[in-house]
Every structure is written in structure tokens, then in C-alpha cells.
Design goal:
mainly alpha
Amino acid sequence: MVTPEEAERQHTLRTATARFDDLRLRDTLGADPLNRDEALELLALGEVIARKASYGRQITVRSARTAGASWTQIGAALGTTKQAAWESHLRWAADHDPDGTPLTGRE
């Protein structure tokens, strides 16, 4: 069984998405049903994609701020309010080093 942690080490966002799409398409069409390991891999890949997208979003928010974007503009780009964008980024930043490395789970 593939865990999200294993899949995250094995895949970039692009390769995780490609594998996810292949498995999801097979699952949706039903002509070649997924076996248990593939179904669990599909779940793990979904989690990896969500994690990598979230990380990328926060790094991009930081880039937008560095480039001079206001929180109002960032909120609009994210389809939310400036307050929600700011609070979300603040929570993420509190759990990560300036380079984006998570503070939790380290020795």
C-alpha cells in the first residue's frame, strides 16, 4: 500500500497528477476496475496533490506580496476576501520556516 508520504517522495505535482488522472479515468470508466492497492494509491495521490497544491499556493502568495500585490488583490485572485487570504497565509507561515520547510515533524 502506498502512503501519502511515500507517494510525495516519489512524485512531483505533475507526475502525481498524471498518475491520479490515469487511475481516476480507469475507475470512472469501469472497464478495467482498480484493484485494492490501486484504489488506495488513488486516495494517497489525491492527498499528495492537495498537499503540494497548498504548499505551492502559499509560496505563490509570498511571491505576490514580494512583487507588491495587496491582500485585496491576493484575496481576489484566490476567490476569497483579503482577510481570509491573510489569515490562511499567517497560519501557514507560523508552521513553516522562511524557506517553506514545515516546522513540525523534524528531529
